[in-house]
Structures are given as structure tokens and as C-alpha cells.
Amino acid sequence: MASVTELCNMALARLGAKRLTNYETDTTLEAIHCRAHYEQTRDALLRSHRWRFAMARATLSEDAAAPAFEWDHQFVLPTDFLRMSYLYDSTASYDVEGQRLLTNDDAAEIVYVKRVTDPTEFDPLFIEVLVLKLAIKLVMPLTQDKVLRRELQDELKTVAGTARLANLDETNTTGRDDFGLWNDARSAGGIFLQNDTM
User: Fold this and answer.
1) CA-CA distance, 157 to 128, in Å (whole number)?
2) Contacts for 62-69 with beta carbons within 8 Å, 24 or more apart?
């Protein structure tokens, strides 16, 4: 399985750029730009879609302080929380504000997208999308090649679509009528691509 260094090298290879020896300690221009963009790109991509490998469940603890108004309860979100999927076994409304989930329910069990930092846990198709998104961010500071950037953006659209469809195939919602089913359908909308077309 890939390491962070290997993932960066996959992106750099798409640009014909110099490879890294060690992501954390190299002092080359390539390493500096990889460190500037890798974690943000990874987290933004994780947050952009309900990736099955990054899904988690948690029973939340209630915050001792109640919300100032509008909601009856607030709950502490997990430290690895990136995106809400749904509130389990509940049709209650909720808001996510900072590191708190606000709701009128007096208990909260959630399904959410977590921050995954270990590349060995990444889905192979997530890696394909991550490498392309990272390459797009690196292409201008390292090569100034606008044609290559456009080609990478076009490739990303195809790869992201394939990844999204494969991810959606890994759930069976037959017979479900809960909020999670609605979220599964809604997540078919697409992987966040706007930053890659600027």
C-alpha cells in the first residue's frame, strides 16, 4: 500500500517533476509544495463525498452547556469528524456548528465521514482521485503548464465519476426508509470539483 511519499510521487510523476525521497524531511521545491497541499487536498476530498472507507459511527456525549437558543441540546462531535452523513434512528432536524451537533433530540448517534490519515486505509479509486487533485494543485507552481493542467482536470472528471459510482455500489439500502437512505441517494450528486477548474 502507498505511503504519503509514494502518493506525492504519483502526483509529481504526472508532471514529470523530481521525485521525493521523504515527504517529511526533503527540502526540495517539490517537497515544500507537496507539504503545503497534501493534507488540505486529502481532507477536502474526504469531506466532498461519503467514501465508504471513511465512514464511521459514534454515540455522542452531550455538552454540559446548552445552546443559547433554537435548539434544546448540543453534542460533542468526534475529533476526526469531517462531514455529517445522518443522525441514526431519528428524523429530527439538526445543525453542525463548529465541533458541536445541535438538535432537539436528547441523544445522538451519528454516521459521519471521518478524517483518515493512514494511506494504507485509502480505497484505490480514492487514491486515483487524490493523486490527480494533488497534481492539479502542483502543476502551476512546479511547471507553469496550463495545457497539462487542463488535461489533468479532464481526466479527473472521468476518474471521479468512476470512483463515485463504485462507492455507491457498496451499499444495499433495500427496505430502508430512514434518513440514511435519502443521504445515500443524495451523495450520488458528485465529488467536489470546483477548485480543480479554476
Assistant:
1) 11
2) 62/106, 62/108, 63/100, 67/102
CB proximity list for 164: less than 8 A, separation 6 or greater: 49, 188, 190, 191
For the question of whether the overall pTM of this predicted structure is more than 0.70, the answer is yes
Each as own residue / partner, the long-range contacts of residues 136-140 (CB below 8 Å, 24 or more positions apart, any chain) are 136/196, 137/37, 137/41, 138/11, 138/12, 138/15, 138/17, 138/30, 138/33, 138/34, 138/37, 139/15
73 beta partners: 103
CA 28 vs CA 20, 65, 137, 139: distances in Å: 8, 48, 17, 15
79-111 pLDDT, tens digit per residue, is 999 999 999 999 999 999 999 999 999 999 999
d(CA 189, CA 74): 29
For the chain, domain boundaries? 4-51+123-197, 54-114
Rounded CA-CA distance 100/64 in Å is 12
Half-sphere exposure of 166 (CA within 13 A, CB side): 13
Listed in sequence order, the DSSP H helices in 18-118 are 29-47
Distance CA 109, CA 178 (A): 14
Distances (CA, A) of 1 to 6, 115, 118, 119, 120: 9, 18, 10, 7, 5
Looking at residue 27, what DSSP letter applies?
Answer: -
For residues 115 and 44, give the distance between their C-alpha atoms in angstroms, rounded to a whole number: 10
